[in-house]
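User: Please go through the entry that follows and flag anything odd:
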Amino acid sequence: MSGEGRVRDERGEKIGAFFDLDGTLLPKPSLEWRFIAYLVARDAITSGHALRWLLHAAKTICRNPRAATSANKSYLAGLRESLVSDWATAQHRNPLDFYPRGVERIRWHLAQQHAVFVVSGTLAPLARTIVKPISPQIEVIATELEVRDSRWTGRLTGEHMSGAAKRRAIQRAEAKCGLRLDLSYAYGNAMADRAMLQSVGRPFAVNPTLRLRHLAAKRNWPILDWAEARKSRAEATNRLAVKEAR
């Protein structure tokens, strides 16, 4: 791990490292929107799917605006879960552009024998597919979809993994793995990660939104700009390519 935010580890303790995905490890667009674009390009999502999504959103937006969109997966109703495998195959030709510093940080935690988790509101099958190449040791805690006869129903089997749901997930991981949360790490980029960050002794605001940046400054949480580091690395690579071409 690079020197940024380095903290001494206590040997023999069970330590966890919890990473948000979209915006923290992966640039925009979000993983789910990438998958939706793939489905649209494949004509897998029809006008009927879009209508079901809109009707579901209209029913829930008044009592829970956030659930009307982020937790609404009715557009997936009737689609084959094997579409994730098809999408994953397509990703081998065009690998996702993770922030290099984020991947380095994950590998550092694994080298320290920390338990590493991705805790994300994205679709669980998508998250499992993309983090497996980094390391099969990473445990994914994300939004689980209900499946019947190998097809999605458009409903969830648990909570949409955002906000307080992330804190509850971390608490379950603590009980299951015997983790010391006061010695554990968490990385998030938005206020939806606030509960997760507050659950551990070593929170990091990564590529933070303005609100999270203000909160991090108030709480003295380290701020990591992996997006800026990625941009600088890309610019350096481009300058080298231009120099070599001359």
Notes: The first helix runs from residue 31 to 41. The chain has one domain: 16-245. Residues 16-245 form a domain with the Rossmann fold fold (CATH 3.40.50.1000). DSSP finds ten helices and eight strands in the chain.
